[in-house]
Amino acid sequence: MNQKLFGTSGIRGIVNQDLTLNLAWQTGLAVATATNEGKIPRARKKNLECPNKTKEKAMRKIADALPSMFQRTIEFTDIDGARSTLTNGWILIRASATEPLIRVKIAAESIRETEKIMERCASLVEKVIKEIVS
Fold it and tell me: Which pTM value belongs to this model?
C-alpha cells in the first residue's frame, strides 16, 4: 500500500502562514521517505580559509584526491567543484566565488557517518592549502 505523503492523509500547511518546526520536519520526513527509503540525511558544512590566488590550484588537487578517498564512491564529477556521490551520502567541495574560502558540504545517513566524512574531507582541504601556501 502506498502511503500518502502530501494532501489529505499527509502533511498540510496553510498558504501564507509561518513555517513551523513541525511542518518543516514533516516535509523533510515526507521527502526523505519518498526519495530515500525513509532515511533522513544528516548534513554539515564547513568553510575553510583559502587565499583567492590559491583556490584554483587547491581545487585541482582536491578533485584529483577525492574520488579515491572513499571506497563507497559511486559517482564523481569535478564540474563546479568536486562532488562525490557515496552509497551512504554525498560530498561537495567547492571554492567560494565571493570569499577567500573553500566550502565543504557533506550529507550522510547518520550523524556519525557525516562527522567521519567531514573530518577526512576537511583534513584533505587543510593539507592541500597548507602545501600550496608553504
Answer: 0.71
